Amino acid sequence: MTEKTSPNLAAAYALKTPEDSLRLYANWADSYDESFAQANDYILPRQVATQFAAAKGSGPILDVGAGTGLCAVELTKLDLGPIDGTDISQDMLDISATKGVYRRLFTGDLTARLQLENDTYAGITSSGTFTSGHVGPDAIDELLRITQPGGLLALSINAQHFVAAGFEAKLAQLAPKITDLRLPQLRFYGKRATGEHKDDQGYVALFRKR
């Protein structure tokens, strides 16, 4: 029997492997928007979408770690699209499918190769996938592979993991392959948030593929 993982923020921050993610989000999908996003005033999806739009991102867009579609909803409000979404959890994608904001949804593991051709998307967004450290900086290579030359990536990265997990070093290593790198720092949660993570901050790594 699969061990049940309690669906809460502490469990999300403790994720280490793709299997951990599958267990957690299978239990959390149905209540995620209410028990996490609304309860914690989770503004990161809007922050990522806003930064992507301000940097003149365009579609087609792949929303990576799409979850229940929160970032895609914000992108749609900004008249950006079309949007495809991928996530390791089919349970989460089932919820995002009900929101009518995606052209296509498919499961994908960023620690492996995505079933996509090179240079498929003009834009990549990711809100929360690089937040707790369970997806490391090497996944950026795969995202660059599927991005068109000149395409914009907007990836949220938790400040706690930015240096410690190697994201700063990875972006430096990728300098010959990317351009226009900016790292605006922002809050993950709004003024109504409570609890030990209410003041968490991070970066939206904004850059284009050469």
Would you kindly provide a written description of the structure presented here, covering whatever features stand out?
This protein is of the alpha/beta class and 210 residues long. 32% of the residues lie in helices and 25% in strands. The chain has nine helices and eight strands. Strands 1, 2, 3, 4, 5, 6, 7 and 8 form an eight-stranded mixed beta sheet that branches. Strand 2, helix 6 (90-97) and strand 3 (104-107) form a beta-alpha-beta unit. The protein is globular. The N and C termini lie far apart (47 Å). Residues 1-6 have low confidence and may be disordered.
Summarize this structure as a short list of keywords or feature phrases.
9 helices, 210 residues, disordered N terminus, 25% strand, 32% helix, single chain, alpha/beta
Summarize the structure.
With 210 residues, the protein is an alpha/beta fold. It has helices spanning 9-13, 18-28, 32-38, 44-54, 70-77, 90-97, 139-145, 159-162, 167-173; strands spanning 61-64, 83-87, 104-107, 121-130, 147-158, 178-182, 185-187, 201-209.
